[in-house]
Design brief:
Layout: H1 3-20, H2 22-25, H3 34-40, H4 42-47, H5 51-66, H6 69-72, H7 77-92, H8 118-150, H9 156-171, H10 182-190, H11 196-211, H12 214-217, H13 222-236, H14 239-248, H15 250-265, H16 268-292, E1 295-298, H17 310-318, E2 323-329, H18 337-343, E3 352-359, H19 365-380, E4 384-388, H20 392-400, H21 403-406, E5 412-413, H22 416-435
Parallel strand pairs: 2-3, 3-4, 4-5
Antiparallel strand pairs: 1-2
């Protein structure tokens, strides 16, 4: 995945977190409608600010931003802010003035045996495939963000296997399907987590809170949680790339900001899909231009770009411009088919065309068909075709595209010198035939 896309959805998620926390940070309940709902309700939110909760939120942000860096590896700033600001809120503010987490339902969920029949089976399978696909994409995107922050590389198979097993087991207890949690992952990384064990410990801590320590979380102000979430969103923003994107690449900058805006206002999956698609189109276009330079057609030894030995160049000179040496190099993909068509347009002016694929490790079906057309055009113009194709994979693809059916076996060579020698012989015999009375 191009880094401009990764940077775009990372920053987009950061913007989403910040926008969604504006309402609780200012002392109001979160409006419905996500980002657009929050932005549309912003005038009302600003006109009804609860300054007590805003103070707690700003105090939380102050601790998070100015907490000494040397102490962060011992005690996370988020934990300090959570405990200190919660205690201060209990001392200086009444419970009625501050919105708090409140009571968390305790206890373990009960086992739920699934029941289904043939009538709903199709619906279940379709819904499962849709949710599973979206969950996989969400998890892998979260893993990519984790990789970017930790400079490590995740194992996607392991991530998806773990998610699948967890969802199947949790479904037996009435839970909704889940996926990678970007906010939890980033928070975990920010406080020093580096291994999968941290995720397991996080789950155990949450279980303990739900089962036995719910009373400790009741007084936590919502504004404190909002402040922590805003801090997480601020840190998810890819400041490094944002500051130098315009210097690195104009196209990369446009893709990054487009993905970010689509992530915020449309959908993460749509943003990433379009970003990857457009990035790949740009890459293909660049590769096409580069590969088109490796499609060359010369009729004399002056073409320095074609790797001919002195003896091979001497032979080509003897043809007196009647042999078209058609040389391709490197992997040939569909995007160079136009360059192939453009280079063989004057094939009728020659007696022999040597199609040299010695340095082509692979071709796709589009290039194979373009070469088939080139050979057909040469044969229609009464131009003899000689083929150089020692690579087995390329040879097989030519066979599938019927190119080998058009070129006789005795016109197929492994060495350029032999092909050039045969071309000279053919030119001389053609000249002699034309001179005969």
């Amino acid at each position: 995945m191009p880094y401009s896309v990764v940077s775009g959805f990372m920053s987009g998620i950061g913007v989403i977190l910040i926008i969604l926390q504006l309402s609780p940070l200012l002392g109001q309940a979160s409006p419905t409608g996500g980002v657009t709902g929050t932005l549309s309700a912003l005038p009302d939110i600003l006109s009804n600010i609860k300054f007590s909760e805003l103070f707690l939120g700003l105090l939380t942000l102050g601790i998070l931003f100015f907490y000494p860096r040397q102490y962060r590896k011992y005690i996370p700033a988020q934990l300090i802010a959570l405990v200190v600001v919660t205690i201060l809120s209990m001392i200086f503010f009444n419970n009625e003035d501050i919105r708090r987490i409140g009571e968390i339902p305790a206890g373990l969920p009960s086992l739920v045996i699934p029941h289904f029949n043939a009538e709903i089976f199709t619906t279940m399978v379709i819904d499962a495939l849709v949710l599973g696909t979206l969950g996989c994409i969400d998890t892998l995107l979260t893993a990519v963000i984790g990789d970017s922050l930790t400079r490590k590389e995740h194992d996607p198979d392991k991530e998806l296997r773990g998610q699948g097993i967890a969802n199947m087991i949790s479904g037996l207890f009435g839970a909704l399907p889940g996926a990678g949690a970007t906010m939890g992952t980033v928070t975990n990384i920010q406080v020093g987590a580096r291994s999968p064990m941290s995720g397991m410990i996080r789950a155990l801590v949450l279980a303990l809170v739900v089962l036995v320590a719910g009373s400790l979380t009741e007084p936590i102000p919502m504004a404190v949680l909002a402040g922590i979430a805003v801090f997480v969103g601020f840190n998810i923003l890819d400041w490094s790339f944002i500051q130098r994107a315009h210097k690195v690449s104009l196209q990369g900058m446009v893709i990054m900001y487009s993905v970010m805006l689509l992530t915020v206002f449309v959908d993460l999956i749509v943003a990433v899909g379009l970003g990857v698609f457009i990035s790949n189109l740009i890459v293909i276009e660049r590769l096409s231009r580069e590969q088109a330079r490796k499609v060359k057609a010369i009729s004399d030894a002056d073409g320095d770009d074609v790797p001919l030995t002195p003896s091979e160049r001497s032979l080509l000179d003897k043809a007196h411009g009647k042999v078209l040496f058609f040389y391709l190099s490197g992997p040939m993909i569909f995007s160079v088919s136009k360059a192939i068509s453009r280079q063989h347009t004057r094939v009728a002016d020659y007696d022999v065309m040597i199609l040299d694929l010695s340095d082509v490790p692979m071709i796709d079906e589009t290039v194979g068909l373009a070469l088939e057309n080139a050979v057909k055009d040469a044969l229609d113009a009464k131009c003899e075709v000689l083929l150089l194709c020692p690579n087995e994979q390329t040879h097989q693809q030519l066979d599938k595209c019927n190119v080998l059916d058009l070129v006789p076996k005795n016109n197929t060579y492994l060495l350029r010198y032999d092909a050039l020698k045969a071309a000279i012989t053919h030119v001389e015999s053609h000249d002699n035939a034309n001179q005969a009375p």
